[in-house]
C-alpha cells in the first residue's frame, strides 16, 4: 500500500494553496474533489437510482459511488447526516477510485461494508467485480487506504499524534475522522 500512500501525498502536494495549504485541518476533502478534480459531490437519499446500480440484498446499502462519466461522487445522505466523519471518508474513498481506478469504468459502487473502516472483506464490490471481470488487486482496500492517507496525511498525523500524546478523540476532532479510521491510521503508522 506504499504506492497508494504516495498517490495520496502526490494529490495533496499538487493542490493549489487556495484549495488546501498543506497544514489546515481537517483536510477539505470535498473541496479537493470539487476544485482539484472537478467532481461534483452529491448527497443522495437513494443511491440505488444511480445508472447501473447493482441490485442489493435485504439489509445492504450503498455508502457511496463514483460516476466517472458524469464526474460525480454520490454519498448516502442518511449516513452522511448520521456520521459526518463517514461522509468525509466516503468522499475520500470515491476520490481514491477516481485517481486510481476510473479508467474503463462506467461506475464504481461501494457497499456499506466496503467503506466501513472496521470491516475487512476479501470480496470486491465494484462494477468490475459484478460484471465478472477479473480484478488482480483489491481496489476497495486501495481506495480506503487512499482515503485514510488523504484525510490523515502521514506528516501531519505523526505531528498531531505527538502533540496530543496519541489521544484518539483529539485526533478525530482534528482530522474530522471516525474513531475506527483514526485507530486504523495509528496502527498503520506506528
TrEMBL record:
Positions of transmembrane segments: none
Classification via InterPro entries: IrrE_HExxH (IPR010359), Rad_response_metalloprotease (IPR052345)
Domain of life: Bacteria
Domain IrrE N-terminal-like: 81-186
Protein name: ImmA/IrrE family metallo-endopeptidase
Amino acid at each position: 500500500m506504499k504506492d497508494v500512500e504516495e498517490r495520496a501525498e502526490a494529490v495533496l502536494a499538487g493542490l493549489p494553496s487556495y484549495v488546501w495549504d498543506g497544514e489546515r485541518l481537517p483536510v477539505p476533502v470535498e473541496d479537493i474533489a470539487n476544485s482539484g478534480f472537478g467532481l461534483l459531490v452529491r448527497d443522495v437519499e437513494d443511491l440505488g437510482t444511480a445508472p447501473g446500480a447493482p441490485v442489493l440484498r435485504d439489509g445492504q446499502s450503498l455508502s457511496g459511488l463514483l460516476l466517472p462519466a458524469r464526474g460525480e461522487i454520490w454519498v448516502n445522505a442518511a449516513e452522511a447526516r448520521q456520521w459526518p466523519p463517514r461522509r468525509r471518508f466516503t468522499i475520500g474513498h470515491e476520490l481514491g477510485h477516481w485517481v486510481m481506478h476510473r479508467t474503463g469504468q462506467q461506475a464504481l459502487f461501494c457497499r456499506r461494508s466496503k467503506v466501513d473502516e472496521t470491516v475487512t472483506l476479501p470480496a470486491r464490490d465494484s462494477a468490475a467485480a459484478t460484471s465478472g471481470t477479473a480484478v488482480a488487486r483489491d481496489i476497495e482496500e486501495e481506495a480506503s487506504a487512499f482515503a485514510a492517507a488523504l484525510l490523515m496525511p502521514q506528516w501531519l498525523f505523526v505531528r498531531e499524534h505527538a502533540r496530543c500524546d496519541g489521544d484518539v478523540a483529539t485526533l478525530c476532532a482534528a482530522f474530522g475522522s471516525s474513531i475506527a479510521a483514526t485507530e486504523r491510521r495509528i496502527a498503520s503508522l506506528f
